[in-house]
Amino acid sequence: MSKLSLITVLATVSIVLPTYADSQHSGGIHSPKNEAILAPFDIIHTKITTDGNIATFHMMVSSKAGSSTPLPIGQLAGSDVFSYVWPTSIDSYEVGFEKNAGILALAVTSHPDFDDTPLYDENGDGNVGNDGNVWHSHWVVLQPNEQCGKGALGVVDIPKGATPRLPKTWPGLPILLDSPGWSPTFDMKAVEVRVPFDNIGAVNSSTFDGVTAGLRINQSVHAPLLCVVDVMDIASGDLSLPGKVNE
Hints:
Layout: H1 13-16, E1 29-30, E2 43-51, E3 54-61, E4 80-87, E5 103-110, E6 136-144, E7 153-155, E8 177-178, E9 185-187, E10 190-196, H2 200-204, E11 207-208, E12 211-217, E13 226-234, E14 243-244
Antiparallel strand pairs: 1-2, 2-3, 3-10, 4-5, 4-12, 5-6, 6-7, 6-8, 9-10, 11-14, 12-13
């Protein structure tokens, strides 16, 4: 796991990246470039801002955001998921789960071996079940899970027979994951997602971090179903959620 310290982004970044206005690259968490991390996952800026009831989740990387996706293996068991993730302090109840169910995170993911957005046809071919490789968004609830590895996080499993509170767009998998259909946008080095909230105050008072990571479906396709197995970068360096919304 990378240990990154926070630094102020060099003033020259506005020259190198003329497509980004100062307001887009200000505030949030600034992280140093790390040549040891693949550029599409090397986080240099993370922030969340709100306007009315819309929260914009923003992450900037060294180069070519969204250009790298997992290689398909032809089966669900053992398949990989690449992700851009904003862990937050927002209560999981605000998006449809039980209260205090774990760490609520917005994730933008790609995974060619399965489709977990049954309500949406991201690639526009008329088939809603074949577009997991297209980058899409999820809410996930994370907790430490030793079965995923020492100190590792996993998406919270739903025990057999349990009936927890779940969002209306829950895709039917036995984990605390939602497929709300908010489309991510990629622009050179940045990925953004605009998300409406019923209670925007819960977002305005929250803190956040930024993570790029690989996840993997368990070989037994059983609890734990989905584990974080490869943390590529953490905006804060220590997952302390230091970012403040609109600051």
